[in-house]
Amino acid sequence: MSDATLDDRGRLTLPKEIRERYGDNYHVVDVHDGIKLIPVAEDPLEALRDEFDDVDKSSDELRAEAREASLDEAGR
Description:
Elements (H helix, E strand, L loop, with lengths): L15 H7 L3 E6 L2 E6 L4 H8 L7 H15 L3
Antiparallel strand pairs: 1-2
């Protein structure tokens, strides 16, 4: 963890190690106890393709499984 301070124009500079690891684009999310920076890939669509490259099921199959799991969790 490291500290960062806003400059007189309200800008925040992230440490070099963070920028090198996560990139330069972030969503800023207001959470109940602070803020959260979520890295945004340069090409979000390509990042999703990479993330799900090894998934063998169709979106319909995944949706059906999620629906079943939700119903089970809700105490169907």
